[in-house]
Amino acid sequence: MPHNNESTYPHPAFMEGEGSITGQLCPPLRSLSPPFSPRQTNDLQLVREALRSLRNSFSGHDPQHHTIDSLEQGISSLMERLHRMEMQKRQERRVRGKSPAPHVTNEYRDAWPSNSKLPHSHSTPAMSSSACTKVLYFTDRSLTPFMVNIPKRLGEVTLGDFKAAIDREGTHRYHFKALDPEFGTVKEEVFHDDDIIPGWEGKIVAWVEEDHGEN
């Protein structure tokens, strides 16, 4: 004699940790999902309760249970996909936040003399790898520095190249900002036209002073 009382039991698909009606395992919505935020967890709980209520409206062998199983799996898959997309976006934002772009700015932040007041457009020095070297120089008669470009790489520019670039009449003395291993930042005077001018953080910083003819 067949048993007719199995329809009075809750459907296995909404029992904790049990399977579906067709003999294939159908884990509950909670077990299909990765760890979510508290808000997402509450949403999943509401969906699970709604599905349980819907299952109770059908008999134990009603084919609509299969439709509910498919709906449950589809919702779980969608929630998992949305969760992964959200986590990926957060990781990309963290990577962009750790970008090394400010490194160039920090590398040259101390390149300018402390008493100079330059326009913002002059605040980014040329890189030493450039075929053209930027030269910033001060004179006795002006508080505002002048700037020229010499078509040579830093480390190849001589005092003669600098004199030709600024084209100043008269006799002058030439000092250049340099880094001394013992004393740190110094003004180094260069005398001979063939001498290589020292650089400072990718450029040349110079002071041109009139020589009043001391013998």
UniProtKB/TrEMBL annotation:
<dbReference type="GO" id="GO:0005737">
    <property type="term" value="C:cytoplasm"/>
</dbReference>
<keyword id="KW-0879">Wnt signaling pathway</keyword>
<keyword id="KW-0217">Developmental protein</keyword>
<dbReference type="GO" id="GO:0016055">
    <property type="term" value="P:Wnt signaling pathway"/>
</dbReference>
<feature type="region of interest" description="Disordered">
    <location>
        <begin position="90"/>
        <end position="125"/>
    </location>
</feature>
<dbReference type="InterPro" id="IPR001158">
    <property type="entry name" value="DIX"/>
</dbReference>
<comment type="similarity">
    <text>Belongs to the DIXDC1 family.</text>
</comment>
<dbReference type="Pfam" id="PF00778">
    <property type="entry name" value="DIX"/>
</dbReference>
<keyword id="KW-0963">Cytoplasm</keyword>
<dbReference type="GO" id="GO:0005925">
    <property type="term" value="C:focal adhesion"/>
</dbReference>
<keyword id="KW-0965">Cell junction</keyword>
<protein>
    <recommendedName>
        <fullName>DIX domain-containing protein</fullName>
    </recommendedName>
</protein>
<feature type="domain" description="DIX">
    <location>
        <begin position="132"/>
        <end position="212"/>
    </location>
</feature>
<feature type="compositionally biased region" description="Polar residues">
    <location>
        <begin position="113"/>
        <end position="125"/>
    </location>
</feature>
<dbReference type="InterPro" id="IPR015506">
    <property type="entry name" value="Dsh/Dvl-rel"/>
</dbReference>
<keyword id="KW-0175">Coiled coil</keyword>
<dbReference type="InterPro" id="IPR038207">
    <property type="entry name" value="DIX_dom_sf"/>
</dbReference>
<dbReference type="InterPro" id="IPR029071">
    <property type="entry name" value="Ubiquitin-like_domsf"/>
</dbReference>
